[in-house]
Amino acid sequence: MPRRRSPDTRRLILDRATDLASVEGLEGLSIGRLAEALEMSKSGVIGHFSSKEDLQLQTVEAARALFEAAVIDSQASRRAEHGRERLAALVESWIAYVASEVFAGGCFFWAASAEFDGRPGAVRDRVRALTQRWLETLEAEVRLAQRLGEVSDDEEPAQLAFELHAFVQEANWARQLLDRTDAFDRARRAVERRIAAAAPGALAANDA
Fold first, then answer.
1. How far apart are CA 79 and CA 77, in angstroms?
2. Cα dist. 67→10, 72, 73, 95 in Å?
3. Helices and strands counted in the chain (H then E)
């Protein structure tokens, strides 16, 4: 009879895998590296994955679950009223999540995107799909804010989502590469100003 695999062991392995991948890259993940990091035998790790690509994909899914729980389903995001308030709450939850260093290497998906953006395959496809889903979530909130009269109709939802996304990604880069301790505070100010500037009449008021 096949030995049952403990879901707790699998969760422990994937928790360590996401952390390692944020620093060393998904390509650096291997059964041997994980076994060493977890102080487990290789046989205790290998039974949970059918291949290296399977390990990489499951690691991406584990990172996705952590992201969604901390950002999309955070208390702040869930309690916020739809529109500009929820748009701001979503981005703030994302900043708080990255700034809290859930992963040793900063934003998992920033690291994975940089590593796989030029590598065709299942891992790139999944990272791309999840990143696009997040951008579409931000775009959808902008459109709803426009319908509620809280964001100017002159704003292009995809452009506003792109800019908000860029602020946080830049902060992650500045924190990781340049050791800028003020990076996330700067991102917060940039997000606050950009969302305020998107309000109906904001541009006219500034020009007055």
1. 6
2. 18, 7, 9, 11
3. 11, 0
Q: Tell me the domains of the chain and their CATH numbers.
A: 65-207 (1.10.357.10)
Residue 9's CB is within 10 A of a number of other CB atoms, namely 15
Query: Distance (Å, rounded) from C-alpha 71 to C-alpha 118?
Result: 27
Angstrom distance (rounded) from CA 158 to CA 90: 16
Question: What sign has the CA pseudo-torsion 164, 100, 188, 195?
Answer: positive
pLDDT tens profile 44-100? 888 888 888 999 999 999 999 999 999 999 999 999 999 999 999 999 999 999 999
The pTM assigned to this predicted structure is 0.86
Q: Half-sphere exposure of 88 toward its Cβ, with a 13 Å CA cutoff?
A: 19
**Which residue do the tokens 């924190």 mark?**
175
**Strand residues in 23-119 grouped as ranges (E):** none
Helix (H, G, I), strand (E, B) or coil at 52: helix
